[in-house]
Amino acid sequence: MIVAVVISTVLLSIAGIVSIVHVARSVGVPDRAVGLDLLTATIINMLAVTSAWSFQPAVAVLILLLTLLAFLGSVAVARFLDRTRS
Amino acid sequence: MIEIIRDVVAGTLLLVGSAFALVAAVGMFRMRDVYARIHVVTKPATLSLVATLTAAALRAPSWGSAALLVLALVLQLWTVPAASHLLGRSIRRTGVSPAVPDAIDESWTAEES
After folding, report:
1. Which of A19, A75, A79 sits opposite B28 (nearest CB)?
2. Cβ of B107: how many Cβ atoms within 10 Å?
3. B31 touches chain A (CB under 8 A)
4. What is the pTM of this model?
5. What's the gap between Cα B57 and its chain centre?
6. B6: alpha, beta or left, given left = phi > 0 and alpha = psi -120 to 50?
């Protein structure tokens, strides 16, 4: 179990660093929104790994909260793009 | 015995999920325009969330938090494709053209705007 946790933490760290670099390097709102989407998914993945490793019940609540927050953020960016068009 | 099987299954699911997240990150670097990036990020991200949240639900400390994790999984499956579709539609309406111009049918944007 600890081998799987370590390997998946390393892989998820690489994915998070890649998405942060993409957000920093890309131009414009749509590219950054996609990068932040991947960053949120990576954070939720990391929280799931944390919840599988340490038996803390509070992490499940955090995962649920971040799920709803990610959806609201994506919808807000989409609405913002729609509004800047007209 | 059953706990060993559970741990092995959970560890395999964690590895599969993080590998999918890495695939999404690599694909985001390799794709050229924002539509291809949405396409290549959303599906591996959803799959990786399903895998890791299932692993976390298998190793949950109680039935209550397992139920919370399964609820989070169902919500992810529900909201991530919807949010990506909404984002792609808004980007298309803003007028960002794809890198390959023939990739998207133009017929519906004329009547929308």
Report:
1. A19
2. 7
3. no
4. 0.89
5. 18
6. alpha
Give the ipTM: 0.89
Cβ atoms of A52 and A6 within 8 Å: the answer is no
Choose from B28, B31, B33 for mutation: most chain A CBs within 10 A: B28
pLDDT (tens digit, 0 to 9) for every residue of chain B, 113 residues total? 888 999 999 999 999 999 999 999 999 888 888 888 999 999 999 999 999 999 999 998 899 999 999 999 999 999 999 999 999 888 888 877 777 766 555 555 544 54
Task: Match domain A2-85 to its CATH number in 3.40.50.720, 1.10.3720.10, 1.10.10.60, 1.10.287.3510.
Answer: 1.10.287.3510
> B68, A44: Cβ pair inside 8 Å?
no
Q: What is the DSSP string of A7-74?
A: HHHHHHHHHHHHHHHHHHH--SHHHHHHHHHHHHHHHHHHHHHHHHHS--THHHHHHHHHHHHHHHHH
For residue B113, give the 3-state DSSP assignment.
coil
